[in-house]
Amino acid sequence: MRWGDLCLARLLKNLEMSHVEIVPEQADARPAFWLEDVHRADFFAITAPAQSNFTLRHVSDLRILWSRAAKDVTLAAALAETL
């Protein structure tokens, strides 16, 4: 999947992404995923360029597993964090 922009998710409940690959057309310093006001987000087997790939603002119940985009993590809450 090729994206010209980052993946922005705001004001969501129960987000699940599985087997997604982010491949920017040009070098991009922005995170691949920006989550804001999201409750319960699961990311499984996500691939993205090597950098800080997840920016979290007011996120609760987050799981990232089996992904090349970030280390496995389970967070109950994140007010302002970058992974």
Give a written overview of the molecule.
The protein is mainly beta. It has one domain. The chain is 0% helix and 63% strand. The protein has a four-stranded mixed β-sheet, with no helix packed on it. The radius of gyration is 12 Å and the shape is globular. It starts with 6 loop residues before the first strand and ends with a strand.
Uncertain segments are none
**Topology, number of strands:** 4
- Helical content band: under 10%
Structural class call reads mainly beta
This entry's quaternary arrangement is single chain
Described by strand count, sense and barrel closure, the largest sheet is:
4 strands, mixed
Q: How are strands sequenced across the largest beta sheet?
A: 1-2-3-4
Q: Compute the number of helices.
A: 0
What can be said about this structure in brief?
By secondary structure, the protein is mainly β.
Keywords:
83 residues, mainly beta, four-stranded mixed beta sheet, 0% helix, globular
Blueprint of the fold:
Layout lengths: L6 E15 L11 E15 L6 E12 L7 E10 L1
Parallel strand pairs: 1-2, 2-3
Antiparallel strand pairs: 3-4
